[in-house]
Design goal:
The protein is mostly helical and about 130 residues long. It has one domain (about 25-130). About 75% of the residues lie in helices and about 5% in strands. It has 5 helices and 2 strands, in the order ααααββα. It has helices spanning about 1-20, 25-50, 55-75, 85-105, 120-130, and strands at about 105-110, 110. It has a two-stranded antiparallel ribbon with strand order 1-2. The longest helix has 25 residues, at about 55-75. The protein is elongated.
Amino acid sequence: MRPVFSGIFVLLLFMQFTLRGQIEEDKALHFAAGAVSGAAGALIASKISKRNRFWTVTGSVAASLIAGLAKEAIDKGNGGKWDNGDLAATVLGGVTVGVSIELFSKKSGKYYVKRKKSAKKRKKNDKLMALY
């Protein structure tokens, strides 16, 4: 399965160079901002909901939507114009992060599974606990 992901990554890398001329740089920046705010929203929602998958993805999309709405409201307030394309690019960044988290995280039912500590860390923690 890993070679498939490597092939897709290389394909997307080459596509980036051809798409760069077709997509405005402003939209790419909005996408990146949506991805960053979506990652932060996913982290917060995951902590609050105790790693519930639905709320993690919802937090990612909601955070990017809030960031996009705030940016467009600031633009409108400064005499600019409201651009739904910029808003869509921002939300798409959040959706991308949310779906990526969903696809690449370990799952068990409706919750994400915490990764197990390594044997070395467990041994260290056991020694510290023995001191108390």
